[in-house]
Amino acid sequence: MSENNYPEAKLWDMIEDIRVAMLTTKRGELLESRPMSAYVDLSEHCLWFITALDSGKTDEIGEGEAVNLAFVDKDDQNYISLTGHARVVRDVAKQKQLWNAFAEAWMPEGPEGPNVGLIRVDPIEATYWDAPSSRVVMAWKIAKANVTQTPPNAGEVRKVGLG
């Protein structure tokens, strides 16, 4: 991968590895988050989520609303905050392509069910934090920082423009 593509390629790899995001939408004046399984689509430069069409999040998203996706891998100390525009889509072919046992457990009517749809998120930008250490090593770095009064090296932090 070229140096110019490194941050974006690394971001997509991290998302694929973590897979579950907290999808945050706006509900009136409040924010609401819920866990969702993300499917990376590099060919369309977007993320897909299988959803029930009658859920509150689909009303909150509507057509092109801003959302945030937060990905956390606490074991590897990797974190992502991604901002994008979301829209609700009904595409049975895409639903069949993404369908899996996890989706089936939540929506037993299958990918062609009348209440099954997708959320498409077109990313605008993301920030990732990639700590090169395990939790044990990071705890040692924090203890050392407290003794030396020098902040620890928390790893790579990158803001990636996507839109």
Overall tally of structural domains? 1
CATH class: Mainly Beta
For this structure, what is the CATH homologous superfamily?
Electron Transport, Fmn-binding Protein, Chain A
**What ranges have pLDDT less than 50 throughout 5 or more consecutive residues?**
none
Count of helix runs: 5
User: What is the CATH-assigned architecture?
Assistant: Roll
User: What is the ordering of alpha helices and beta strands?
Assistant: HEEEEHEEHHEHE
Compute the number of strand runs.
8
Query: For the terminal residues, how far apart are their CA atoms?
Result: 20 Å
Structure description:
The chain has about 160 residues and is an alpha+beta fold. It has one domain (about 5-160): Electron Transport, Fmn-binding Protein, Chain A (Pnp Oxidase, Chain A), CATH 2.30.110.10. Helices cover about 30% and strands about 45% of the residues. It is built from five helices and eight strands, in the order αββββαββααβαβ. The protein has helices at about 5-20, 55-60, 90-100, 100-105, 135-150; strands at about 20-25, 30-35, 40, 45-50, 65-75, 80-90, 115-130, 155-160. Strands 1, 2, 3, 4, 5, 6, 7 and 8 form an eight-stranded antiparallel sheet that branches. The longest helix has 14 residues, at about 135-150. The two termini are about 20 Å apart. It comes from Sphingoaurantiacus capsulatus. InterPro entries: Split_barrel_FMN-bd, Stress-Dev_Protein, YdaG_split_barrel_FMN-bd. This is Pyridoxamine 5'-phosphate oxidase family protein.
